[in-house]
Amino acid sequence: MPSIAFAQQSSPCSTEQHRQFVFWLGNWQVYANNKLAGYNRIELAHNGCVLTEHYTTPAGFSGQSLNTYNAATGQWHQTWMDNAGTLLLLNGGLQDGAMVMSGEGVSPSGQPVIHRITWTPNEDGSVRQHWQATAVDKENWQTVFDGLYKKQQ
């Protein structure tokens, strides 16, 4: 049986592009409207090629995302899944120091929607996550979630 050899790289995900989202790494308390909304743990996995997200709230909501830089497309990709049945598939990249990803989806009423999430690192070490959605016309963006990530002590 013929074997297929794959080139082994010592650090395939050590490029500058692969490190654009490391500002999000850490254990966080997430605040919305100045109230604790939940907890988020962001870690590197798979030899630094994947950022994993584990989000929980005191009310029992939980979700997880996998994030990676796709060198073939030159974009970051996020797949988000949660215990409410939500699936988000987002793509994007660094814009003016913030990570911005977007993707198409379906609203709870079944209408097409575009999601855009922006993660902005702040000078004090916190990170703002601003999730917006709009109809496919991209005319009226509505805030879905506006959270402030503060490192857990």
Q: What number is the mean pLDDT? A: 92
Instruction: Output the CATH class name.
Output: Mainly Beta
**Low-confidence parts lasting 5 or more residues at pLDDT below 50?**
none
The total number of structural domains is 1
Helix content: under 10%
Largest sheet features = 10 strands, antiparallel, barrel
CA(first)-CA(last) distance: 55 Å
Which structural class do you get from the secondary structure elements? mainly beta
What's the number of extended β-strand segments?
A: 10
Query: Whole-number radius of gyration?
Result: 17 Å
* Shape annotation: globular
Enumerate how many helices there are, as a single number.
Answer: 0
Strand/helix succession: EEEEEEEEEE
Which fold name corresponds to the CATH topology? Lipocalin
| % residues in beta strands | over 45%
Named CATH architecture: Beta Barrel
CATH H-level superfamily title: Calycin beta-barrel core domain
The largest sheet has its strands arranged as 1-2-3-4-5-6-7-8-9-10
Can you describe this structure?
It is built from no helices and ten strands. The chain is mainly beta and 153 residues long. It has a single domain (17-151), classed as Beta Barrel (Lipocalin). The relative contact order is 0.17.
SSE map:
Blueprint: E1 26-32, E2 35-45, E3 50-56, E4 62-70, E5 75-82, E6 87-95, E7 98-106, E8 112-121, E9 127-134, E10 142-151
Antiparallel strand pairs: 1-2, 1-10, 2-3, 3-4, 4-5, 5-6, 6-7, 7-8, 8-9, 9-10
